[in-house]
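Cross-posted from the bioinformatics board.
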Amino acid sequence: MSVATPGTVRRPALGSRRRSRTDPLADALTSTRRVLLHYRHSPGLMAASLVVPVVMVVVFGYVFGSAMRVPGGNYREFLMPGLFAMVSVNGVMPTMVGAARDLDRGAADRIRSMPVSRFGVLLGTALADLLVSTVVLALLAVVGLLVGWQAHRGFGDALAGFGLLLLFRFVMTWLGTCLGLAAGREEVAGQLAILTFPIGMVTNTFVPTGGLPGWLRVIAEWNPISSVVAGARQLFGNPAGSGQGWPLHHPVAATLLWSALLIAVCGPLAVRSYQQHGR
Amino acid sequence: MSREHLAVRAQGLTKRYGKTHALAGLDLAVPAGTVYGLLGPNGAGKTTAVRILATLAAPDQGSATVAGYDVVTEAEQVRRSIGLAGQHAAVDEGITGRENLQLVGRFHHLGAREARRRSAELLERFGLAQVADRLVRTYSGGQRRRLDLIACLVTSPPVLFLDEPTTGLDPRSRGEIWDAVRELTGTGTTVLLTTQYLDEADRLADQVLVIGQGRAIADGPPDRLKASIGARVEVAVGNVAELPAAARVLAALTGGEPQTDADRLLVSVVSLPGCEVSLPRLVRALDEDGVAARDVALRTPTLDDVFLALTGDAGPGAGISDAGISDAGVGDAAVGDAGVAAEVAA
């Protein structure tokens, strides 16, 4: 047992003790690296987010699709933009669970005990989600090409279409982070995430909204996911199906507005909740 | 003691979660370069205190400084000065040990090369080089805790908080963590560690603060603490009929009030301070009264004993002690130089 020998406290070399600054961008890159490392060691995670849409291609594109007729073209051309959007929307689930797990298992505490920008950490997660979804979307686009889907309006519009889908994936990250941090526990977040399915179904993803009963039609037409799907169909030049209401007539603008609104609400909420959790 | 000689200082910390008073006015002062043990049962407020000092929680009242920086108004500087490990600061399971350390280095803005160099050095030094590139979820409990511990050493912070670093570990892994902590303290690092085990505080800490229900109950060097409590004596007998006789012998020798456990055929007592009990005398006395003891042991008092001695009640943690004859593995590891265990042929 050593005897207590009081010394002076070593101060870490950081210059002045005036207001300190964090480096959100550097922290974001580290945070991105952290998420991507998890993906690298669990390739199954990425495969899983590809499997659902591919199964949907078969189930809806060929099984249900054999009896589906949409005005203005082939059902699978109508379907693919919906499945692209599904990649963006379903991304909310791993994001939610990941955010809650970090709180639950103490990773968030370790990170927050370091001199890191809270915003930077969350931004990094969002960037990582975006990169992963870009890969999944690219693979799904190849599947789409194999089953006869095409972008008909040229390279620029096609790029804009994928840009719109990725923008929405970015929005979903902030929403998912917000909900995951609010859930606080991994299992709760997992159960909450299942709600994504009904919300993703009451849309124009699989069928045009025109045939839905009145009240459900209004919900589906104002569902932000419908705007994204319609926006992608427009930019890819795929059949739009019947649909009414302002969002479906101006789907790209509606998507941009929804995105701005959701980020403006969920972004600050997520950062605040990450800062304050457990305080 | 002047402010710059204190690595950690807290005054009148209070914290409520709903109706629970996690901290009810806690003061503490940790001299730089020492190991300070915060000893208490579950729910005593140890973790809350560490969370406040590590800037993860804000106190309702009171103030605290770490390395001279205020934990509320200068949180960023505090974070540059500390490392946090233990039950509430976990490493990532889905990536490798090396990657975990490198990420910590990057979050501290060490630069990629320095983060790599430092990680490799720590993994080597603390015996994890072999498993460095395996996923953490494949690690043993002891390896995980060691990784957890060295993750907060990547930047060599002057102050370390270790929140129950060995809770739930087997005796061998616990010994490994103890060795690692001792190695750190040789380098002038200040360590504040929380624990439920008196023997752990005894082994590692220069000063111990016993806390219960958010308040300080006693403090001082562990030797003084132990001396104020006495030793724990346990006798295991062959059959139930011998229990009363064993209890009588123990009461007479130690001056304490023996507890009888009929299921485990065990009589235990904490001797009063000053009533030194020697094993040979105890064994002789038992023999003279016709008690055929299966096992006789002098042990470090458990946390329950400490609470009983210091507060006069059984303590909020009754039942958490694990230094007993029935789990001899942990018990034997827990016997420090103050305790002697002896097998007695019945």
